[in-house]
Amino acid sequence: MGWEPFKITYTSDYFQELYELAVELIRRGHAYVDHQTPEEIKEYREKKMNSPWRDRPIAESLKLFEDMRNGRIEEGKATLRMKQDMQNDNFNMYDLIAYRIKFTPHPHAGDKWCIYPSYDYAHCIVDSIENITHSLCTLEFETRRASYFWLLHALGLYQPYVWEYSRLNVSNTVMSKRKLNFLVTNKYVDGWDDPCLMTLAGLRRRGVTSTSINAFVQGIGISRSDSLIRLDRLEYHIREELNKTAPRTMVVLNPLKVVITNMESGTIMHLDAKRWPDAQADDASAFYKVPFSNVVYIEHSDFRMKDSKDYYGLAPGKSVLLRYAFPIKCTEVILSDDKETILHIRAEYDPSKKTKPKGVLHWVAEPSPGVNPLRVEVRLFEKLFNSENPAELDDWLSDLNPDSKVVIPEAYAEPSLHSAAVGDRFQFERLGYFAVDKDSTPEKLVFNRTVTLKDSFPKGGK
Fold it and tell me: Which of 247, 269, 343, 446 has the fewest Cβ atoms nearer than 10 Å?
């Protein structure tokens, strides 16, 4: 994300300190070892009833907690609970659990411990130990503020400021970790880095830059009101960034063959194409070479059998300009036996460039006679859900967009793209912004569409 943390720490770095403070909490009469089952704890909390072990002697709890630490008590047979206020209006003050027994090695601490602190116990203490000035969390944790300060006060520790703010909710997706985990584990998506997801890993794989995410977050600001941010706002910042940083290139998604009949077969011209819209003629790095031959490919959607005044593509008897190349005029359409399917088009080009058609098309040519252009796979990503706020739906899974990912296995690309590396970003002219995916192989590149060229968010919006 472009931010350098002051220090990267883990709660497990403080397991010894947390344990010693738990012992001190017992000594001060603010914690006790409990033997209730989870079901019993739930029932007693609902009835605001004290545990039968709540008032056991301090020395007894100290001995039992030591037994828990040394693995002498079975998993699930005891917990350490904070002695808070079972009559409080805030259910997060109902003697929250501080420690549980779990005979499982820890990812960082290994098998040194068989008791582990809870979030409610460790969070505030680690904040205090690390001298955090402000503890920031989302609004659902606001009811835990009482417990946060109670524990620090009970231990006589420094108390940071606590600020709560609303969670970021973006339209046409889900941000809940529970729902995201369900999508991943049940294979509705291809892992946590699926480009359809609004996870950092998914956004990175899709080709979104950290600077555009930071600009988006800065633009929407922090609020305590629960609101839904339209996906367009993020896309606006992505386009603003990639428009400046992604070099232009040409790729044809659904190729339609065009044979130029007045150009000699085998003739190859190498034309200059711009990497950047404002490329200066004296800057060689701002251009790349594209081959132009008597066989080129255009998008199927850029050809119609019937022309109209508001149509700027190719049609029988009509001319268009091939970007960076020459005007061509459709002279003949070759159909299959069904008289409907177009096999290829025949056209003539204007080497003098005197023809001035309105329509400009992107294209890719055969790099040498009889050799197909570079084949690439292109993945087109759309909104993951059809509804703006799928989280509100009872059957939210039925709202998944079946067309959130469309794979085009055989697109054609201009030759210079063969050297693109994973993570490289490009603007495919007239199509959108794309990034090289990790599924690419030396034999075939895979591109993910980051965002379309069309901007549906107003200019100047933040």
Answer: 343
All structural domains of the chain? 11-165 (3.40.50.620), 250-374 (2.40.240.10)
Q: Residue 164 in contact with residue 141, Cβ under 8 Å?
A: yes
Closest among 328, 326, 324, 325 to 313, alpha carbons compared: 328
- What residues contact residue 8 under an 8 Å CB cut-off, 6+ apart? none
Q: How many CA atoms does the CB half-sphere of 283 hold within 13 Å?
A: 10
* Burial degree of 267 (CB within 10 A; 0-12, 13-18, 19+): exposed
- The dihedral through the CA atoms of 247, 253, 258, 264 has a sign that is positive
Note whether 249 and 286 are within 8 A (CB).
no
Helix or strand (DSSP H, E) at 435: strand 432-436
- CA 36 to CA 78: how far, in whole Å? 7
Residues near 309 by beta carbon (within 8 Å), at least 6 away in sequence: none
Model confidence pLDDT, tens digit, residues 210-262: 999 999 999 998 888 888 999 999 999 999 999 999 999 999 999 999 999 99
Q: Could you report the per-residue pLDDT of 76-88, keeping only the tens digit for each?
A: 999 999 999 999 9
DSSP state, residue 458: P
State the sign of the Cα–Cα–Cα–Cα dihedral 282, 285, 291, 292.
negative
| Amino acid identity for residue 98 in this structure | A
Q: Residue 27: what are its φ and ψ, rounded to 5°?
A: -55, -35
What is the enclosing helix (H) or strand (E) of 152? helix 145-155
pTM for the whole structure: 0.83
Among candidate residues 276, 245, 178, the one with its CA nearest the CA of residue 450:
245
Closest CA to 142 of 166, 118, 126, 158: 166
Residue 451 identity (one-letter amino acid): V
Residue closest to 400 by CA, chosen among 196, 169, 194, 167: 196
